[in-house]
């Protein structure tokens, strides 16, 4: 699909299979989500711009590559997004963090905002939105709307699973925002859950129902 990158690395796919298994424990699911976020993070940050800086190695002076520009922002869609966020911060510990509180109305499936906190200069930074599931796309679209409303212009969306319905909705609303995912599943059920999916990511990560 145009604008969608599926990270099909064997380790990503192997870990995702274990996460899908309903017998995987809460602790195991949480650990795997953190691990897989590191692997996904390599792909979503693959083309970050570099510059050079002068350093002294133990043997000589050299011009060495370093990231250019202001530190990037990871924007976590609460609560499940924090599972991906933790691994990404292991990868880029100096990144800034935004938190976006959204919950899904189970009657309308629309996203309802309850919290938003972000760095003030989003327009000068790459913003990577993280949320494990791109299902209906309503929460993802709302999150991007909120970030653009605060000035963000350079955005990417990173998820664990997506479905064609959610991708279509998201891409129509924000065609300028590329999607990175570990897998594109079949479809949504009548309650808006991804099939075959892995259940509710937040519930499985925190052991709630």
Any overview of this molecule?
The chain is of the alpha/beta class. It has one domain (4-45, 71-206): Rossmann fold. Helix content is 33%, strand content 30%. The chain contains six helices and 14 strands. The protein has helices spanning 10-20, 26-44, 81-91, 138-149, 164-173, 201-206, and strands spanning 4-6, 50-56, 61-67, 73-78, 96-104, 111-117, 126-130, 133-134, 154-158, 161-162, 179-181, 183-184, 187-188, 194-195. The strands form four sheets. Strands 1-11-9-7-4-5-6 form a seven-stranded mixed β-sheet, with helices on both faces. The chain has a three-stranded parallel β-sheet with strand order 8-10-12. A two-stranded antiparallel ribbon has the order 2-3. Strand 13 (187-188) and strand 14 (194-195) form a beta hairpin. Helix 1 (10-20) runs antiparallel to helix 2 (26-44) and helix 2 (26-44) packs across helix 3 (81-91). The longest helix has 19 residues, at 26-44. It is globular. It starts with a strand and ends with a helix. The relative contact order is 0.18. The model has no long low-confidence stretch (mean pLDDT 92).
Shape: globular
How is the largest sheet built, in terms of strand order? 1-11-9-7-4-5-6
- For the record, the count of structural domains works out to 1
Uncertain stretches: none
Question: Any chance you could write out the topology, listing elements then pairs?
Answer:
Elements: E1 4-6, H1 10-20, H2 26-44, E2 50-56, E3 61-67, E4 73-78, H3 81-91, E5 96-104, E6 111-117, E7 126-130, E8 133-134, H4 138-149, E9 154-158, E10 161-162, H5 164-173, E11 179-181, E12 183-184, E13 187-188, E14 194-195, H6 201-206
Parallel strand pairs: 1-11, 4-5, 4-7, 7-9, 8-10, 9-11, 10-12
Antiparallel strand pairs: 2-3, 5-6, 13-14
Helix pairs in contact: 1-2, 2-3
